[in-house]
Amino acid sequence: MAGLRVDFGLLLEPLGFIKVLEWIFSIFAFATCGGFQGETTLLVSCKGVVNKTVTAAFAYPFRLNTVVFSAPDSKRCGGTWTDVYLVGNFSSSAQFFVTLAVLVFLYCTAALVVYIGYKHVYQQNSKFQLTDLAITVITAFLWLVSTSGWAKALADIKMSTGASIIPRIESCKAPGTTCRFASVTSMGTLNVSVVFGLLNIVLWAGNPWFVYKDTNLHNQSNRISQSPGIYPTQRGV
Questions:
Q1: Which pTM was predicted?
Q2: What angle, rounded to 10 degrees, do the helices at 188-212 and 14-34 form?
Q3: Do residues 178 and 172 touch, judged by C-beta distance below 8 A?
């Protein structure tokens, strides 16, 4: 009974098809977030320097408070330029999002192996079904929490690497020193990661129903609702 029996039939049903989508979307979620690298650029003019480009390179997991801008020149603007760091540490939100996506990918891989190769075991053992249901509900909640946190962190990352950083740079306030914001790497891929997070919320929030339909709990409720009722014998007046 427990032997391998390859059957792709379950993938054509909502339960298996949604699991394939969850597997794919989890890959895109951690790839678009975990693989990001960018930099923000300023143009600095100071003593002996005109429109010198200074950059600060940042990447996942976005510990921006450890990222320092390069100095305008070897003399550091005549000694007026001090190390300038970006602001904020968003590693917890980013790592939570990526870690969840990786774990979901691994779980979906294992679930698909069971669906394809051990469908008969899954359908005959209520423990597998109830475990799948519990994990699905918990994962839906975790996607909601992680995506919300990551979306907020991304908004803060954009603020911390955009033009608003210039007023916070003390070296730019030195006499004879001017700073202009030049550019920042497009964060389109990070926006896409949030989109995939939202899609995962929708998929995992809707999936519990299809998992529940395969459990004994649903089958029992169906049998109860379909069983003939018992009515008292009516007597004539």
A1: 0.84
A2: 160
A3: yes
HEC readout, the chain: CCCCCCCHHHHHCHHHHHHHHHHHHHHHHHHHHHCCEEEEEEEEEECCEEEEEEEEEEECCCCHHHCECCCCCCCHHHHCCCCCECCCCCHHHHHHHHHHHHHHHHHHHHHHHHHHHCHHHHHHCHHHHHHHHHHHHHHHHHHHHHHHHHHHHHHHHHHHHCHHHHHHCHHHHCCCCEEEEEEECCCHHHHHHHHHHHHHHHHHHHHHHHHHCCCHHHHHHHHHHHCCCCCCCCCCC
Q: Which two tokens stand for residue 18?
A: 């949604």
- Adjacent-strand bridge partners of 68: 85
- Distance separating alpha carbons of residues 52 and 147, to the nearest angstrom: 38
Longest dimension (CA), the chain: 113
**pLDDT tens-digit readout, 162-209:** 998 998 888 888 888 889 999 999 999 999 999 999 999 999 998 888
Any idea of the CA torsion for 156, 161, 165, 171, to the nearest 10 degrees? 140
Q: Which residues contact 123 (CB under 8 A, 6 or more apart)?
A: 129, 214
Provide the token pair at 139: 């994962």
pLDDT in tens, 131-174: 888 999 999 999 999 999 999 999 999 999 999 899 888 888 88
